[in-house]
Specification:
Distance between the termini: 30 Å
Strand content: 25-35%
Structural class: alpha+beta
Strand order of the largest sheet: 2-3-1-4-5
Number of helices: 2
Order of helices and strands: EHEEHEE
Oligomer: single chain
Bound molecules: copper (II) ion
Number of strands: 5
CATH topology: Alpha-Beta Plaits
Number of domains: 1
C-alpha cells in the first residue's frame, strides 16, 4: 500500500485525473482517495516512484507518506495547475 498526500487535489475532477494516471501505470491498481484529508491510497505492484511520477504528470504534487521516513518533499510539478484553478 502506497499513500500520497496530494494537497492540490480539490474536487471530483482531480480524483478522476489522479485515478486515471495511476491506472495508466498499473491497470490493476486499487485507488482509494479521501478528498477531505487529501489522501491517495494505492494498492499496486508498481514502485512508489512510478506512481508518483504518474500523478505529477497529471499535474499534481504528491507527497509520499511512508512509515519509515514520514513525509518527503513534494515533487516539482509542471506549470499546469489543478483543474479547479
Ligand atoms: Cu479539481
Amino acid at each position: 500500500m502506497t499513500t500520497f498526500e496530494v494537497k492540490d487535489m480539490t474536487c471530483g475532477h482531480c480524483i478522476k485525473a489522479i485515478t486515471q494516471a495511476v491506472l495508466t501505470v498499473d491497470p490493476t491498481a486499487k485507488v482509494q482517495i479521501d478528498l477531505s484529508s487529501h489522501r491517495v491510497q494505492i494498492e499496486s505492484a508498481s514502485a512508489e516512484t512510478e506512481l508518483s511520477h504518474a500523478i505529477v504528470k497529471a499535474g499534481y504534487s504528491p507527497i509520499a507518506k511512508t512509515a519509515e521516513q514520514g513525509s518527503s518533499a513534494p515533487l516539482k510539478t509542471t506549470s499546469r495547475r489543478c483543474c479547479c484553478h
